[in-house]
Amino acid sequence: MPDHDAIGEWRRLRARLAYADRPASAAALATLARTIRRTVISTISGAGLGHTGGDLSVTDILSTLYGAVLRIDPAQPDWPDRDRFILSKGHCSVALYTALTTCGFFPAEALRTFAAPMSPLNGHPSRRAVPGVETSTGPLGHGLPVGVGVAVGLLLRGSPAKTVVVLGDGELQEGSNWEAAMTAAHRRLTSLTAIVDCNGLQQGARTCETANLEPLADKWRAFGWEAVEVDGHDHLALLDAVTAPRGALRPRCVIARTVKGRGVSFMEDRVEWHHKVPDAEQARTALEELR
Amino acid sequence: MASQGARRRAGPYGARGTALILDETQTHDCRDAFAAELVALARADSRIVAVCNDSVGSSKLVAFAREFPERLVNVGIAEQDMVGIGAGLANAGLVPFVCGAATFLTARALEQIKADVAYSLANVKLCGMSPGLSYGALGPTHHSTEDLSWLRAIADLPVVVPADPAQTRAAIRWAAGTTGPVFLRIGRFPVPDVSPPGGPAFVYGRATRLREGKDATVVATGTLVSRALRAAELLAERGVDVRVLNVSTIAPLDREEIMAAARQTRAVVTAEEAVPTGGLGAAVAEVVLETRPVPMRLLGPRSFAPTGGTEFLLEHFGLTAEGIVRATLEVLGLDHN
């Protein structure tokens, strides 16, 4: 199943980034993000299903992680000491699937089967079917508890691997996240990072009009976490926020301020694009803008 | 599962032909057998960890905590977190036994059990402690009578209900040795030994025929197994010859043994400390209906319990030897008196 050509290309990117200066790194990650966004648009438009807005808001986070942070081996998805990445907002599966193809976990051609009968790529990522998916997500509020368990388990095993969980902001309305936040702080899980893709919109309305989450950083701090806020479309800011040394024995939350539908003018910050599918004309326009 | 021809059954009296003598004066809390076996397994396998929800005492993890403090993950009163953490520990390569009162473990974290454990095929052993009516007068909020129905509906999740200490130990050993999700229902209400000496106490996916009979079959699980055996003795005194099956794997059900009961006896009675609408009763009824319909009676609590201790509640719901006798006579169209 691994795509060895893609793995080779991804390894060259990682090697290049290891020695690149900041402008060159930013440019490389921006290119990767653009590829993912364009594939998201064509995949969703082709399948007639998907969560376009959230896929586009999380893209820069995913490209930073897969492009420059996660220690993984796409040729061995089960390598015991791999870093674990969990996309708790599982509805943004197309962005995740695309990111996984850019590393070579499986060939990009498979994206054409997204949501088709019997495809391994269904609307929400399944651990059973997709290499690189650590746990099946879709129902919200599940990723962080699993991430906490992974981090505890890796520590017990003496593994140096890190755990990163990406959550939606609306998803933080689920209480299970705060149960996990308490456990993570109590157990001083410095190997755990939560990134909130904070685009301010949920399915039906703005989060602040539905069940306000602010002041969000203060909430995480009150739960015993380090919290930093960054521009969630600034790859270098994300990179710095995720990789900065830990000052204290605390798990870290990166609140990534993002724009839902980022990169496509008529989708940006518009609630209806939560799971609206672009028609052929809209897809063409979107791809033009993402050139 | 082995093919039909290759199946070797323990038979009614154990592999070596020793008959079971039911001694109801000696009873056991199966949690003690669970706790002892878990410690023994943890000594041999460093991947085994325990996860609990502030239930170190009620899950009988005190000895485990003393011997392996770093391998006990007590998350506090947070069941969704507990099951998610179990799935994460399995992802990291450990073998977590996730323990909590059955009602809170299964009701509070049902979606985590479905998505994080079963659908993700995570190697998590869910241990529902003190199930059924064992919390007695603490009331219906604490009774776990729906768990078998809920969990049986989840694909790829074996549901195991040991009936005595020997079965409990064997089931825990099997669960630790198998890769994949498992739910174990660990009884608290004291039960006598019901496993025939000499045979394997637990074989995954197999029902055990504890007593032969041709008139009717009583299919029981957990606490109700010893009561089914006593009922068979009482029925024998009245000239009614009853087969008794101990179904310790509710899912996947031993269809062959149920089909044999329906074929070879005239009626089937099920008995469980759980709602029969979805639990053992419904599971057996599905097979009987699909293969060889015979008259059935499904025993189990069908309403929220009134106030009372466990023994009183079992009596209230007819979950006693006498209740099983009544149901068997009724289903066979025989006079009670």
UniProtKB/TrEMBL annotation, chain A:
InterPro entries: THDP-binding, Transketolase_N. Signal peptide: none annotated. The keyword tRNA processing does not apply. Pfam families: Transketolase_N (PF00456). Keywords: Thiamine pyrophosphate. Its cofactor is thiamine diphosphate. Gene3D superfamilies: 3.40.50.970. It comes from the Bacteria. Residues 32-274 form the Transketolase N-terminal domain. One of its GO terms (molecular function) is magnesium ion binding. Belongs to the transketolase family. This is Transketolase. It comes from Nonomuraea cypriaca.
Automatic annotation (TrEMBL), chain B:
Residues 28-193 form the Transketolase-like pyrimidine-binding domain. SUPFAM superfamilies: Thiamin diphosphate-binding fold (THDP-binding) (SSF52518), TK C-terminal domain-like (SSF52922). Keywords: Thiamine pyrophosphate. Signal peptide: none annotated. Transmembrane segments: none annotated. InterPro entries: PDH/Transketolase, THDP-binding, Transketo_C/PFOR_II, Transketolase-like_Pyr-bd, Transketolase_C. GO terms for molecular function: magnesium ion binding. It comes from the Bacteria. It holds the Pfam family Transketolase_C. Its cofactor is thiamine diphosphate. Belongs to the transketolase family. This is Transketolase family protein.
